[in-house]
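Hi all, long-time lurker, first post. I run a small reading group and we've been trying to get comfortable going from sequence to structure in the token notation. Rather than ask abstract questions, I figured I'd post a concrete chain and ask someone more experienced to write out its structure so we can walk through it together at our next meeting. Sequence below, copied exactly:
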Amino acid sequence: MNLFVYLVTDDKYFMERDLVSTIEQALQGGVTALQYRFKNKSARQMYEELLVLRELTRRYGVDLVVNDRVDLAMAVGADGVHVGKQDLPPDIVRKIVGDSMYIGYSVNSVEDLRDVDHLPIDYVGFGSVYETTTKENYRLVGIEGLRQAVKLTQKPIVAIGGITHYRVKEVLEAGAKGVAVVSAILGFEDVKKASETLVQACKSVYRERLFMP
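-- Answer (accepted) --
Happy to help. Here is the structure in token form:
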């Protein structure tokens, strides 16, 4: 499980863009995980796209995570599945997938984190840390909420929501183990360069920590 730089797909960024070539650019740029997240496609279309992306992510040594659809995650042999409040409960997901993949869970407040910390999940997607245009209805937790969340759980937290390369330092120093992004990469025409910029920003934070007295 390597969710250091975690790219999440979104329908609106692929209206006039080829999915596979765009994702490959991001993988070339250094993203460490890909979450396949689409809301307006048929199960058959998603399955066929996931088969291609499964081979692509294996070639680059990148984790593939499927959002919501446990059946599709199992069908293509994904590395992980990500669910939230409206999806199958994590304990049921664990019964289905066993130890074949890891489970992520979306949490939108410190209070909710207390309620789900006992569940059989392997990481927590926590946010929105900043204001975001990716989702219309979201809950802003802020950087202080992220700091509190990190103190409440032993599970790794992946921060999401409005994260850009110039906010990475603040997010990682708050204790997040990774950053999940959409527009910070897909919002740019040059996806590879945007990925490289974000990856380098993340790496620079860890280099600073290594040399701190």
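A couple of things your group might point at:
The mean pLDDT is 94.
The chain has nine helices and eight strands.
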